[in-house]
Design a protein that fits this description.
By secondary structure, the chain is of the alpha+beta class. Helix content is 31%, strand content 19%.
């Protein structure tokens, strides 16, 4: 066990120091070792529009390792020198407009294309930004790498030419993603010493983002109620993409990586109202989009086009890097929480990589609706390795990490409630705006504290939590349109009776968080009450008007070998199968998933209730469901008002899992 901890400190819960961060980068180097092509002067990644960005991220790794005097596998001085020359060559650098690809909206020169082989390849703000990030790291390590003066001058000229191009100069913007511009401005200031764009243009970008927060029915603006993120601010709020975007909100929040540098170089501080907005939004980002397990609490209006892509996890980690290091905008406590989550995120990725033979898949948790290429999976690995190195450059190795307390974030108009604690994480997503198939007023997913799937990642009945009244309704069905209050908080530090027009964060730490929702159809009404604490969740369902109906409460599982065990009051255990088992004398259900699970402590169950398992088919948003425990609480012909209450505890040292389920 000690040896395992020495190999991967974060797997044992320890925060990283400099050696730990560079150890992460070291352990990911074998993914790329065989891809190095000395004659071509680059890592060959087989196309797919990822060549320039993979090589730029690996340049960051090699350069930062050299600057720190590191001697591990991440230190590759010769390759770094070659990569600088290759990234400054044409392609990928272009000084005049390259041949246009049909459908491209970001064609520009000077800039970089996505291929290191062909001029006729994609351009994107992300490509320029990641290439410049790598070149800036190389400039900082120019002496340690032994870059020639001629090569350094070429690097400086080309970064400055791109930064001063019309595509990047104020008032240019891509949607509301001003983070890319912050990276370009900062790199230009670093290598040239000319800081006007970082001081002046970034200040204007920040002010514009804050000014354009509010929207209307026709134009969403940047942030919605609860400060949820709008991917397309010029589109209506009802647009699918504007449900929210966990990944792009974090990408934009990564401007914090460069905030302190801008202030040191003379950028004026945001106005008090702007500063308050940014601080509230960043609190919302950390509380509502990240988990204690180091993964994204992931819902996105871009649906399967982004959901669970490993390469987007690597980009999203930049927000944690920034929040952990932005002393001028983020408080000490939040910075320490961000470092904790970043370290856990790096450990999460490494764990997925080990399970997959060294390279984490392009999509996590078996999601496969929009397959990702091998190149995309390698890009994810390069980004994670570079982020580990960037943490060293940002000084996080000597910074204290603190495990966050239980955190939540609530958006009153969509009703999305995200919850993360050291023991579990989950979300309720009543309104999907049609962007994805899962959701409702029940738990949309359930992970344990190590980000292992305890129950589901986004199932629909019967692979979902909640009530099903046969032939009438299910509580776990998302609404596709905004309107009203789909979920209300009844106890929370902030957000009880939250205004639907408020542009402020209902987010932060909590001890006892409670929410309620109602579903009605054909004379049948189901009210659900949820209570969240640090170690467990309590849920209570009340059903009215369902006489002559059959109603069941569902408890899903996940993955290979999943099964359900009923535990009697005297400790005896019975495996639950297809045959209905009476709940008389049953104290709890133990739902075992592939690597985790949860206990269902039965607090209130109607007389004559019984349980059996269903075997759901694979779903697009829940591709590996295990058996679902279906607790029948109402039979046809029985009274129409019935209630059930349970306490859920994910696998771990917390009640109610410990005891019978932990044996």
């Amino acid at each position: 066990m000690l040896a395992a901890c020495l190999v991967a400190l974060a797997a044992c819960g320890a925060p990283f120091d400099d050696a730990g961060y560079l150890g992460v980068a070291d352990r990911l180097q074998p993914v790329f070792a065989s891809q190095w092509d000395e004659s071509a002067g680059r890592y060959e990644e087989g196309g797919g529009g990822v060549e320039s960005t993979i090589n730029a991220n690996l340049l960051s790794v090699h350069a930062i390792a050299a600057q720190r005097g590191y001697r591990g596998p991440s230190r590759q001085d010769h390759r770094a020198r070659v990569l600088v020359r290759s990234l400054l060559a044409t392609p990928p650098y272009v000084s005049t407009l390259p041949p246009r690809i049909d459908g491209s909206s970001q064609w520009h020169a000077p800039g970089w294309v996505s291929s290191m082989h062909h001029l006729r390849s994609g351009q994107h703000v992300m490509v320029d930004s990641e290439v410049v990030d790598g070149l800036a790291a190389a400039w900082s390590a120019r002496r340690e790498l032994g870059l020639s003066r001629q090569l350094v001058r070429r690097l400086v000229r080309r970064i400055h030419a791109v930064a001063r191009g019309r595509f990047w100069r104020w008032p240019a913007i891509r949607l509301n993603q001003f983070n890319w511009y912050a990276r370009i401005y900062s790199a230009d200031a670093l290598v040239t010493g000319r800081s006007r764009m970082l001081r002046h243009d970034l200040r204007l970008q920040i002010a514009r983002f804050a000014r354009d927060v509010h929207g209307n029915a026709a134009r969403a603006g940047n942030l919605g109620p609860g400060l949820r993120f709008h991917y397309v601010p010029a589109a209506p709020m009802r647009a699918r993409q504007n449900f929210d975007s966990t990944e792009y909100a974090n990408i934009v929040a990564s401007f914090t990586r460069f905030y302190d540098d801008a202030r040191r170089r003379g950028m004026a501080a945001p106005r008090p109202a702007e500063r308050a907005l940014l601080r509230g939004w960043l609190r919302r980002v950390l509380s509502g989009y990240w988990t204690h397990g180091g993964y994204l609490n992931w819902d996105t209006g871009l649906g399967f086009r982004r959901w669970h892509q490993s390469k987007k996890l690597g980009l999203s980690q930049h927000a944690l890097l920034g929040m952990a290091s932005a002393h001028g905008l983020v408080g000490k406590r939040t910075r320490r929480w961000a470092k904790w989550m970043l370290d856990r995120s790096l450990a999460f990725y490494e764990r997925q990589a080990r399970r997959n033979g060294g390279l984490a898949p392009g999509l996590f948790f078996g999601v496969h609706v929009r397959p990702q290429s091998l190149g995309s999976a390698r890009l994810a690995a390069a980004r994670v390795a570079a982020n580990a190195a960037r943490a060293v450059a940002a000084g996080l190795g000597s910074m204290r990490a603190v495990e966050p307390p239980p955190l939540y974030a609530f958006d009153p108009d969509t009703g999305r409630l995200a919850v993360t604690t050291p023991a579990y994480n989950t979300a309720i997503v009543p309104v999907s705006q049609g962007a994805f198939p899962y959701g409702g007023i029940e738990l949309a997913r359930l992970f344990d504290g190590d980000q292992e799937v305890a129950a589901s990642i986004g199932g629909r009945p019967p692979a979902a939590f909640g009530v099903v009244v046969k032939g009438v309704l299910a509580t776990q069905v998302p609404r596709t349109q905004l309107g009203g209050r789909p979920l209300r908080l009844t106890r929370a530090p902030a957000g009880v009776n939250a205004s639907l027009s408020a542009r402020r964060a209902f987010a932060g730490r909590f001890r006892d968080l409670r929410a309620t929702g109602v579903v009605s159809r054909a004379g049948v009404t189901v009210r659900i009450n949820h209570r969240f604490t640090a170690g467990f969740i309590e849920s209570r369902w009340s059903i009215y008007g369902a006489a002559r109906r059959e109603a069941s409460v569902l408890f899903p599982s996940w993955g290979r070998g999943a099964h359900v065990v009923a535990v009697r009051g005297d400790g005896r255990r019975v495996t639950v199968g297809r045959t209905r088992l009476s709940l008389r004398g049953i104290a709890r259900l133990c739902v075992f998933s592939e690597r985790s699970g949860y206990a269902v402590a039965l607090q209130q169950v109607p007389a004559r209730a019984d349980v059996h398992v269903l075997h759901p088919a694979a779903q697009s948003s829940d591709p590996r469901p295990g058996p679902t425990a279906a607790v029948r609480i109402l039979r046809p012909g029985r009274r129409g008002h019935v209630a059930m209450a349970v306490r859920l505890g994910p696998k771990g040292p917390h009640a109610p899992w410990r005891g019978s389920c932990a044996k």
